[in-house]
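Apologies for my clumsy wording, but can you show me some protein sequence, whichever is easiest, together with the matching structure tokens, please?
=====
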Amino acid sequence: MSEKTKKTEAQQNTPGSRDELREMLRHFRTAMLVTHDTTGMPRARPLVIVKVEDDARVWFATTDHSPKIREITGDAAVAVVCHRSSDEAWISVSGHARLVRDRQRAHAMWSPGLQAWFSGPDDPALLLIEVVPTHAEYYGADRPMIARAFQLAKGILTREPPKTGPIKHVELERLSDPGRLSH
């Protein structure tokens, strides 16, 4: 293995923490939820993040007749992907989705932005999706954009990997039984 490859891998294998992941997630308003269709092909769609719990569980709202409901029922393994172009921060969470029909929780998580899709928290079509993370990778720029651009240019000229900051990994235990619809 070349020194260049070793440096790149070392930069990309930095331990992260649940707390850091949670705080990063809370700075994103939307995420791509990736499920698997009946043929096993991945399907991604943007959803508003309704809530991020202290333990880094992510909540979304959807309609109970959405194709993603069948996909989650068939295969609860999902991914949640966030990206912010202003600083190139990103998060990739792997985990299991759980479908939740809970009016009390819907009321607690309700925000005016959801009115574009639902008549209110008591809308009979409203279904919550809880994503319980099992693994996450994330990158939060620890330098200003100009410094990252300089590192990229330097890397091109020197043929050395740019020092843009670490990609962090965190393993998270499964918090609940995935996939089931709970009331």
Residues 174-183 have pLDDT under 50 and may be disordered.
